[in-house]
Amino acid sequence: MKFNSKNSFRPSDLVLVGDQVLIVLGLGSAIFATYRILNISVFPLQSILYQVIIHLSLAVLAWTIFKVYKKVIRFFNSTDYLNLIGIVLLIHVLSLGLTRLLPIHLRLKPEVFLISFFITSLYIIGSRLLISYLYTYYRKAKKIGPEKRLLIYGAGHLGVFLKKSITNSQDHDFRLMGFIDDDKNKAGRYIEGVKVTAADDNLEKLIIDKEITDIIIANKALTPARKSKFLETTLKMNIKVKEITSIKSLLSNFNIDKLASIDINDLMNREVIELYGKNVADKIVGKTMLVTGAAGSIGSEIVRKLAKHNASLVVCVDFSESALYDLQQELKRTHPNIAFKFILADIRNEEMLNQVFETYNPNFIYHAAAYKHVPLMEQFPWQAVQTNIIGTWQLVKLAIKYKAEKFVFISSDKAVHPTSVMGATKRLAEIIVRGYSETNPCTQFAITRFGNVLGSNGSVVPLFKKQIQQGGPVTVTHPDMTRYFMTIGEACQLVLEASIMSKGGEVFVFDMGKPIKIVDLATNMIRLAGYTPDVDMHIKFVGERPGEKLYEELFLETEKLRETHHEKIMISTELGHDISEAEKIIQSFLVLENNFDADLFKLTIKSLLPEYKLNLPVEAKAVTLKTTFKPKEYNYQN
């Protein structure tokens, strides 16, 4: 027996000593009961002494070999108790066997050992149950605040493992109220002593009746649409929801902080769009890829997917020094066998771009670089024009000059009936891409239109997260503001698929389901953060920003839709745009070089794009293209 430095028993030593006392008491109780049952008034003290020595020696040896005393009592489960009963049985069998070696007058009656086995098992197991109960009672007495009442969504292996983890851990203030499961066959049954209820059987009533405060999702087979519907119900009732993504988070001890928080992507209320990537992978292997805006949220994910599909070389072009450096460090670590080139360059610099194309001669070009923040572009429209229009035009020319196979331009749903400079410049860039596509069949041009991409740099999600972290309020422009949403992964799948499917001049759009109200998105994000909207954290309506509109559209009336191999991908084609229209757009802005009059740029955009909804003060000046310098001469066919 070991002692610690302070010459006091450790908890395991106390367990060892306590169990031996109980084993001796068990044997003594059995002797007393047996001889009383047999109506023998004289106890054989010498036989009892010999038997106690043998019995106790066997017990200490068994407790040491099987390390029974080192197991933490409050973590005992059914398996541990069964093992304990087995060890107690082994001790009594050996003890009975050794007794047969003693002289007949020193032997105890065999009935003693049978009764001792049951009494000792009762003492040993009962002591542990009592200690566990007292520990739990003491812990609960010390806890401050109301008890949390928990439901586990999923009565499969993961849910049962979670239940056991919660049961074995005392470092929480949860009371498990039951399982819920989508499997109707499990409804009404009990698993590990806990009742299972069908998840669709009036979930709201179940939550109210059982006063549920928390739910943990332990169902890896849950579809995105089903999860979204479930969250829609529970979050409205101010239920805190967490999710288990793997058993690893439960292997040591239950801790709710280790569980995954529900992601905002889970609230899209539709199935995540998945495309089979083999066709894409086959076309990408061995090719040189160029990605502009490569360090941005969309561009960087495109680069990752290209690396995953084993592109021969991925040329990453971006104007943001820090973001490009971060991407470089990440890819060196995650894809050491893929060749990357990181180019710090502005797509508005034609000479620099020409040098990049001449050096690497890319097969596929993914043009993600853009200025996309709507209010800022209203203030600085010349920046939107230079990047979104002139930059795109220069890339298009170079793609044709160096005979690139594919060119994918990433546009926006804001380009349809635009009310903002950002949307209008994207629409004009679309016209340029389509115009050059009509007369240059060697390079196949494609356009992809996105809704809002959840988690991207231009999305409302990062803004809302920051506002929630700062304690609110969460600012929403208008109660009726709606947007289409997609994930970054979905957006990049569409881009890659477009680069393979395109025959020239098409617009690719995902069927993104129904648009989502921004105020609903804000409300759900507040609830996911553990707050009650308009109680713990307020939503403040601040009015529409310059250039914003209440809803977005995906297609123009003049575009014709056609089906594709995938039910969620839509393709539109639009006639009437040729290279002369593209040249007119470019020429109109080239004469405004070094001009920084915001109203003049907006009026110029309006003259080129009649559907652009322009709101300028009455005193705004008329369009004038007079200039003191002669425009540069460009060879548009290069």
What distinguishing features does this structure have?
638 residues; Rossmann fold; 15% strand; 3 domains; 7-stranded mixed beta sheet; 9-stranded mixed beta sheet
The CATH C-level name of the largest domain is Alpha Beta
Could you tell me the CATH topology label of the largest domain: Rossmann fold
Q: Please tell me the CATH architecture of the largest domain by its name.
A: 3-Layer(aba) Sandwich
Average pLDDT rating: 83
- The rounded distance between the terminal residues' Cα atoms is 90 Å
Please state the CA-atom Rg, rounded to the nearest Å: 37 Å
Provide the β-strand percentage band: 5-15%
In one word, what is the shape?
Answer: elongated
Q: Class by helix and strand content?
A: alpha/beta
Uncertain residue segments: 1-6, 618-638
Strand order of the largest sheet: 10-9-8-11-12-13-18-22-21
Count of DSSP-assigned helices: 19
CATH superfamily of the largest domain: NAD(P)-binding Rossmann-like Domain
The total of beta strands comes to 22
What's the structural domain tally?
3
Tell me about the biggest sheet? 9 strands, mixed
Give the helix proportion (percent range). 40-55%
What does this structure look like?
This protein has 19 helices and 22 strands. The protein has 638 residues and is of the alpha/beta class. Strands 10-9-8-11-12-13-18-22-21 form a nine-stranded mixed β-sheet, with helices on both faces. The protein has a seven-stranded mixed β-sheet with strand order 3-4-2-1-5-6-7, with helices on both faces. It starts with 10 loop residues before the first helix and ends in a 30-residue tail after the last helix. The relative contact order is 0.07. Mean pLDDT is 83; it is low at 1-6 and 618-638.
